[in-house]
Amino acid sequence: MKFIVIPDSKRESARRYINNNLGPTELLALCDDMFDVICLKKDKNDGVYSRTLNLLQLQDVPEALQFEVVDAAYQTFGKVACMLFNNDVKRCLYGPYIAEHDL
Q1: Residue 62 lies in a domain
Q2: Dist. CA 57–CA 32, nearest whole Å
């Protein structure tokens, strides 16, 4: 299993951007595009997810944005509204890690 080290400063940058610049509609668009790119393997270089990675300069650690998007989606939309998204993204992003830890 490969562990990824995500600097706190990168996660904080992503969290600040999401909290200060995205309303529910924009967050939902980011969630949807992130899911398409990561889980469905769609090549969307001009999509919301790719543009956000570029804006925040997180191409080297995209997991920083991914964690913060999932967390913000849960906080914004609540457990019921975001359950399918969370389950699919967890399975897609974290794979075998879920078996050992309850995310």
Answers
A1: yes
A2: 20
Three-state DSSP class for residue 75: helix
**What residue type is 25 in one-letter code?**
T
Domain count, the chain: 1
pLDDT tens for each residue of 51-95: 999 999 999 999 999 989 988 988 887 765 556 565 555 555 544
Q: Is the separation of the CB atoms in 34 and 69 below 8 Å?
A: yes
Residue 11 CA to residue 27 CA, distance in Å, equals: 16
Domain that holds residue 47: 8-100
Cα–Cα distance, 1 to 36 (Å, whole number):
24
Distance CA 79, CA 62 (A): 24
CA-to-CA distance for 99 and 82, rounded, in angstroms?
21
